[in-house]
Amino acid sequence: MEFIDNLPPMDLMRSEKMTFVQLIIPVESAHRAVSYLGELGLLQFRDLNADKSPFQRTFVNQVKRCGEMARKLRFFKDQVSKAGLISSAHPDLQPDIELEELEIQLSEHEHELLEMNSNSEKLRQTYNELLEFKMVLQKASGFLVSSKSHAVVEERELDETAYSKDRYVETASLLEQEMGPGPSNQSGLRFVSGIICKSKALRFERMLFRATRGNMLFNQATADEHIMDPVSTEMIEKTVFVVFFSGEQAKTKILKICEAFGANCYPVPEDMTKQRQITREVLARLSELEATLDAGIRHRNKALSSIGFHLMKWMNMVRREKAVYDTLNMLNFDVTKKCLVGEGWCPIFAKPQIQEALQRATFDSNSQVGIIFHVMDAVESPPTYFRTNRFTNAFQEIVDAYGVARYQEANPAVYTVITFPFLFAVMFGDWGHGICLLLGALVLIARESKLSSQKLGSFMEMLFGGRYVLLLMSLFSIYCGLIYNEFFSVPYHIFGGSAYKCRDATCSNANTVGLIKYQDTYPFGVDPSWRGSRSELPFLNSLKMKMSILLGVTQMNLGIVLSYFNARFFGSSLDIRYQFVPQVIFLNSLFGYLSLLIIIKWCTGSQADLYHVMIYMFLSPTDNLGENQLFWGQRPLQIILLLLALIAVPWMLFPKPFILKKLHSERFQGRTYGILGTSEMDLEVEPDSARQHHEEFNFSEIFVHQMIHSIEFVLGAVSNTASYLRLWALSLAHSELSTVFYEKVLLLAWGYNNIVIRMVGLAVFAFATAFILLMMETLSAFLHALRLHWVEFQNKFYHGDGYKFRPFSFASLIDDED
Q: Where are the beta strands (DSSP E) in 4-102?
């Protein structure tokens, strides 16, 4: 025991030791102190104003100002991206500016941009109207006027005109009949010309037809140019129309319908001379507006480029300032209103760094009074903080997804680094597939610096985050694939020749005639001669099933041993005596004994039936084992182990609740304070209620909890051991799927003397390997390995009811923004 106590602490095994601290900060140095602590990122503040709403806090106005500045910066970012400009990702050389000065600058820039946008929108609206007018003039003149010769040839009656398919020609003839060189008659034919979105043209025509009861003629032509919407900046396709009608009521209806459909109407004179004159004026104004718009866009882009150069720096500055004021709102004023009082958690190793940062803040703010930093006692449990690196972070995340470790509890991630990829590989073992995964992991690691700075999709981000998990999974898959001797399901004589040969010289088919062993056993992994033999499946099933049980019992024992180290660390002798010891006895009396039988059978080559041995160990423990006896003294050993397993159940269930009750009653008689402090408090009391729970003791609740825990362990010992058989099942499924794709797809296609069939077979084999075996099977094995760790391994010792250490850090603000 002394040797164990003297061992150096293992990294990641226990969370960092935390301490509860109080800060008393003068008002004049509060902002700078919190800023320096944010840069350090090692202090988690506690909210001392949790009972107040955000609007009742001290620095609410500063938070509102920062929020308003953040809104303006988002507006600038949106404008820069719409303009197709790129904001500078590198910090500029501009000296630091104060928040008040930045606020003034942002207001000026916003006012300038809004004014430019407003002017640009108005100019664009005028330009669009002139452009539409030009297109209406061009298209409508074709409907209204035609040459005299054309009019003579095409002159017809009004009824014929109304129902003619050739609208362009017939309408012009009809108008020349009705219109003279002078103005139209009041009772004659009139027209309305304009332009409308092409998507609305059909509905517009139907509505006009119904409103006028068919007493109108609708002509349309697609506009030559697209019109840009000034709001959405999208190019819209439009259609020019001319509606011929008669009567004042029809005109009123048509104009109302045009307004409802958003159609713009433009007056087109009947006189050709006037049309040409108006067209020239429109073209002249369009050219002027184009020049004005281009100048405006250049000026706006210049202003946006200037903003974009400083945008990232400004956004980071505002984000930091808002975070500082949000943190200051978690602090309380003392009675003199001259100091702010804050409380929080920090790792013990970080105390000198925090003190140095606070001293720097006092010096830089020219404060006459220093910042007081002292350690306090805390009632609640400290947060959990593990210092991880790029390699261990992914494994820690796997554990934290189940639950964050209780403060100073043994961390499963230390063992998960090896056991998780290994159990994955047991199910996935194929060194060909492992090499494919290894190449993918190496690509992600080689491009680590580039990918870490890019915005990745959700799937790619998850894959990149687990690149080192993928690396170990691939390496262990290659190792297990060499043991199974499978390369895309094909065995190879890598480590020498086979130990088996044909029964005699006339043997033509070793798979059917049979094999005999003629030399030493194949040195590493499964002998390739088992492949395709009659006994292949029974042999591999037996091997993988027994191996799964051995791995499962080993890992469950590891979990129980870790519960011992937890109990020893927290000084809980009750847990060691009445939880750890009976659990070890129960599990190993049954399944530890089964593992021993498997190893003895492998070593001796015995033909004993282990199913029979284990079943009759319970049904008839005193009967003679006969041919199923593996070693001398097996029957009395089985009786002893069975009795130990039976004794272990009440040993787990009864002593602990009664001892706790006795300790509690003695506490009120004033005798055994020390025992109570080291037992009850560490065993049954949650750390966040340690001080309050001394006054309460509900025996029935504790007894029921212990009974549930005992029953769960006893039943779980059976079900968890059976659960590890998934290692055998998934390994078999992976191997059989690989064999099917190899034999029934690739070899079948290669049997044809046709290059097309061979290429198709190769493509199908590659597709099945990539998407089914390398993606779906990888995900399946990953999830099953995850379940084995979360349920079968961690439930033996891991509470997982802690909460993460979340320090105030500017670096985490940038990560959250990304």
A: 18-26, 44-46
